[in-house]
Amino acid sequence: MDSEALKKYSALHPKPAGLTLQYGTAGFRAKAEKLDHVMFRMGMLAVLRSKAVASTIGIMVTASHNPEEDNGVKLVDPLGEMLHPSWEEYATQLANAEEHELQQTITEICQKAAVNQHKDASVFIGRDTRPSSEKLSQSAIDGIFVLDGQYHDYGLVTTPQLHYMVCCQNTQGQYGKATLEGYYEKLSKAFTELIKQSSSSGESQKHLKIDCANGIGALKLSEMEPYFPKEVLIQLYNDGTKEKLNHLCGADFVKVHQKPPRGLDMKPNERCCSFDGDADRIVYYYQDATGLFHLIDGDKIATLISIFLKELLAKVGQTLKMAVVQTAYANGSSTRYLEETLKVPVHCVKTGVKHLHHKAQEFDIGVYFEANGHGTVLFSKAAETKIRRLAKEEKDNEKREAAKVLENMIDLINQTVGDAVSDMLVIEAILALKGLTVQQWDAVYTDLPNRLLKIQVADRRVIDTTDAERRAVTPPGLQEKIDALVKKYKLSRAFVRPSGTEDVVRIYAEADTQENADALAHEVSLAVYHLAGGKGAPPQPL
Ligand SMILES: CC(=O)N[C@H]1[C@@H](OP(=O)(O)O)O[C@H](CO)[C@@H](O)[C@@H]1O
Ligand SMILES: [Mg+2]
Which domain of life is it from (predicted)? Predict the structure, then answer.
């Protein structure tokens, strides 16, 4: 490490005095103007991580569904996974070190993590369309440069595209070609193969309206369109040419407000979907003839995919172990349907993709989705090998054809991380192959009415949870109070947890009716306000 160069460069990216940030559920997130030093330092950390694991590491500059003024950064591990938890702590230390402690902190990280500083380092970097992203990614590049790392700047890409590139690179091309063209070709080839086998459905079945949240999804879908087969008739809305990123649109807005995004003209019964700002989440929806809005969230996506995969597994006659991984936010009806009707085991883990991904790796086929629409399917190496072999060698026609469908699903799904583009194509292929309308998909089960609220408290760390965040262990008395409130309603459930991305406590409630879900959520938020140090005026009923 050249300490003069480090001093010189870090002076160009000074840390605002007194500012401390934490590497949370989704990396660092803050107002963009507070992040320059963090980017520079994450450039350096990516170099250290790359040296430690002798692989290419990714840096993605994005704040996903947050407002346009925010930004953030996430590191991507060798196979496209989220940064290993043991390094999150190093990320936080490095981001918060004062200028004069910087060199010492780097040395300490190298010691603790056994980083061989003489090794080569390689970093892939990408960014979303925020006005601040270009400059911030340059700051990260300065950080890579100062520690002598090699880098490739992919410029504007979706978060899942960057994860894909990193995985391709570290598997020496086994996962695909580490270029945008490679990504488009791999996905569109698998998709085209899949829908070849669908009996041609009506014209209306082919149309899909996509709300791109005024983000990167619009750019990348336009680039990808020439690769699509002619059966795909997509119309892009909120493409970023007129309005602000994530403003009154995008997957998060639609999920939280349970209403259509602005800027998408929706006719009755049309199939529509929304991406989030960095295109790693997707939700579907439609409006029925009476004008009622129907949200089809991550739970229904997981269910559709599970139904489809289970049928295929039965056809190929293989006993591969399949499971669905959810979080506490999954609608109770989805869990019940999966366990009781579909007979697929369901596991509940803590919020955050890294937890879901990790759990899903335990199965031959692990389907994971957060209710908000972030998710994917993981196939174990053994399962993949078996399926590819059957697709090639199986003598029985029906079995071999089913194995081929599974093989194309493996190639279409971005197994590195949830991917709105890939998930959309998976869903479109399943609907086409099964001849399902969006209404039939929606009707697989009925969501329990639910409400998600957030409130501010003086220090959200006073709330500690257990049992995959479904029960609060502190502050004293809070869980007992929640239990008593839940008992007042039918089919009810409620829990609270501190957010990992915002300075708030989240409250979730579901019950037999919307009024009851709203009332329960409100009562629980009052309990949090009183027992966990609520800030400002007490929460008001909805
Ligand atoms: C209830 C909810 O939607 N929580 C989101 C949100 O996390 P919080 O820790 O709840 O702020 O952002 C995460 C990162 O995008 C996402 O993984 C998660 O699902
Ligand atoms: Mg996102």
Answer: Eukaryota
